[in-house]
Design goal:
alpha/beta, single chain, 6-stranded antiparallel β-sheet, 18% helix, 628 residues, TIM Barrel, Jelly Rolls, binds alpha-L-arabinofuranose
Length: 628
């Protein structure tokens, strides 16, 4: 029997209302092929191989040619376009494969738009959706095509649901057609915004109720070389004008290559801020600090040439918060959001280290402090939670008076169980901590064998009780990475797995969700006595709005346990619990069994002044106690 004493009469630190958040990076087809709902891959023939994602269709009697041209394009931003030349012996054209297929749903509306001109003769253009097994799902024909570039659009309604449909563009009759910027979007995007985000994926984020959203990465911020870094200014304004960039996860892992992975920036900085607003999360952009990824080239911008990088940071604050009449606030307003986005924090660099980082961080801090003392500055403590690089950086951050330090850790579950007291001894007067990337690895970091096991989720939950108990030092935390496409991932484990039609919330997702939904406002001290193995982890908090006491208990062992919750000075009247548990520590959710590990609610008996709990084997229990 374990005794957990919750000192509800001695409330401690306030818990940041934004404590638990999410971290998004375009990895694992998280943006293109994921959150950004565009179904056509390489829609403007801008990939280095302009026909990536497209292939020629040659019915037996068809006679024609496919070419990529660049003279007289419809828009100088898009030099390449597709030419289809058919002799008219049969329909002739190309198909787009989408992102490992296109997910379409029966009867729903899909908006097809393209730029088109008829050069020789006036054939028509047949637009069709075919399913994975070759069945025709929908077709429409565009006629009366103009001789000059024009935008044409049409709505497609597939007759059946298919996770791997393809889009066909077919010339009907003899003639030549030029085609560019081919786009196919579900009507049912998040908030039904044209050209918007995938509704179910945003819903999964909204369902978490995250306190903040860190974006756009991750290593993607840095670039393997500087010219491949994330430049937010290239990601705003008309979507057609945003220049394509190779995604570093295209080539980062030789064991998981993704040669068709590029960033279209259809999900750009405006959309990130809008997403934050939609889901009630505080925006936390991370910007490049004049360094490429030190795991790759480690290219550096000379200190004397850092100004444009610092300018980008200052302009970003104006883009987010400035009045509509300011230069960058005006660009935000022109995109449809004249009110500010209320940016309050900014990360400078991701996983940098060494003196090179400090030398570059210093001028950023000076410039940002001078112009925007209201913005909290976040610095990165490197890729590991306790190595030499980490220990070198921390004192330097203190000297620079950075507000928040971003610590990262990907490690075996044991590391998380063993380090729940990591922050008990942290300096209470120094910078605050943001535990910005973490995930327990069932095998090892970057192993393709990692799974989102219950054991990993419980290790994270145990660690999170330590973060909560130290809420005076740790002010934010986020799991990483967030999304992964089941056929196009580079990194595992991940919080949410998707295919083209559905998604799976992992055990880790449910742990995050329980902490977000049951955060509490003030830390309550807890004492845990009497565990044979020492493996009970607990934290407690008071919910100001309801007066309830929230107790989180992680019991990772494979046998049932008993806990007696003692609440000196208060009288419990009613209790309920939500439990995440399963038969085996290696159990995990999958597309076949998406809810195998999921929270289950029940009531709990209050016995006199105590609450008696049966702890399920390998479980997280969130207990809510109403008190008199
Ligand atoms: O989350 C995946 C990667 O892990 C991030 O891009 C990087 O910051 C870390 O190394």
């Amino acid at each position: 029997m374990t005794t957990i004493t919750v000192h509800a009469d001695k409330p401690g630190a306030r818990i940041n209302p934004k404590m638990w958040g999410v971290f998004f990076e375009d990895i694992n087809f998280g943006a293109d092929g994921g959150l950004f709902a565009e179904l056509v891959k390489n829609r403007s023939f801008a990939f280095p191989d302009p026909l990536t994602g497209w292939h020629k269709l040659s019915p037996s009697k068809a006679c024609g040619e496919v070419a990529i041209l660049s003279d007289d394009p419809f828009d100088a931003h898009h030099p390449h376009y597709l030419r289809l030349q058919s002799q008219g012996t049969d329909v002739f054209g190309v198909a787009n494969e989408g992102f490992r297929g296109m997910g379409v749903k029966a009867g729903e509306a899909y908006h097809l738009a393209l730029r088109l001109r008829a050069l020789v003769a006036t054939p028509s253009l047949r637009i069709a959706l075919y399913g994975e097994n070759g069945a025709l799902l929908e077709q429409v024909e565009l006629r009366n095509l103009a001789a000059g570039w024009e935008m044409r659009s049409v709505v497609l309604r597939p007759s059946a649901t298919d996770a791997k449909a393809k889009l066909y563009l077919l010339v009907v009759g003899a003639g030549t057609l030029d085609i560019d910027f081919v786009s196919l979007f579900p009507e049912n995007t998040w908030k039904r915004r044209p050209g918007g985000l995938r509704a179910d994926m945003v819903q999964a984020l909204a369902d978490l109720k995250p306190g903040f959203l860190r974006f756009p990465g991750g290593c993607i911020v840095e670039g393997s070389e500087l010219d491949k870094r994330y430049q937010w200014k290239n990601t705003i304004g008309p979507v057609e004008d945003r220049p394509l960039l190779i995604n570093r996860w295209n080539y980062e892992f030789l064991h998981r290559p993704a040669p068709d992975y590029f960033q279209s920036f259809g999900l750009g900085f405006f959309e990130y801020f809008q997403l934050c607003e939609d889901i009630g999360a505080a925006p936390m952009p991370i910007i490049n600090c004049g360094m490429a990824c030190q795991f790759n080239s480690g290219e550096l911008v000379a200190i004397s040439e850092l100004d444009p990088f610092i300018r980008d940071a200052l302009d970003l604050i104006e883009f987010a918060n400035g009045p509509a009449k300011s230069e960058w606030g005006g660009k935000r307003a022109a995109m449809g959001h004249s009110a500010p986005f209320n940016l309050t924090m900014l990360g400078i660099g991701n996983e940098q280290w060494g003196p090179q980082y400090i030398e570059r961080l210093a001028p950023f801090v000076a410039a940002l402090r001078a112009k925007h003392p209201e913005i909290q500055l976040i610095a990165s403590a490197g890729p590991e939670p306790a190595d030499e690089r980490f220990h070198y950086l921390w004192p330097k951050f203190r000297d620079l008076a950075v507000d928040i330090i971003d610590e990262h850790c990907y490690a075996r579950p044991d590391w998380f169980f063993d380090n729940t007291h990591r922050y008990d001894s942290y300096d209470r007067k120094g910078p605050k901590v943001f535990f910005g990337e973490y995930a327990a690895q069932s095998d090892k970091m970057v192993s393709v064998n990692n799974v989102n096991s219950l054991e990993c989720a419980l290790a994270e939950a145990a660690y999170m009780t330590g973060l909560e108990r130290n809420a005076d030092v740790v002010v934010m935390a986020s799991y990483a990475p967030l999304f992964a496409h089941r056929e196009a991932w580079q990194w595992t484990p991940d919080l949410i797995w998707v295919d083209n039609l559905s998604l799976v919330r992992t055990a880790n997702y449910y742990v995050q969700q329980l902490f977000m939904h049951h955060r509490g406002d003030a830390v309550l001290p807890v004492d845990v006595f009497g565990t044979a193995s020492g493996r009970i982890f607990a934290s407690a908090a008071r919910d100001d709005a309801t007066g309830e006491i929230i107790v989180k208990i992680v019991h990772p062992d494979a046998v049932p346990g008993h806990a007696n919750i003692i609440l000196p000075g208060v009288a419990p009247v009613q209790a309920s619990q939500i439990v995440v548990s399963c038969a085996s520590a290696m159990d995990h959710n999958s597309f076949a069994e998406p809810e195998k590990v999921a929270p289950v609610r029940s009531t709990v008996a209050v016995v006199g002044t105590n609450v008696a709990l049966q702890l399920r084997p390998q479980s997280l229990t969130v207990l809510r106690i109403k008190v008199r």
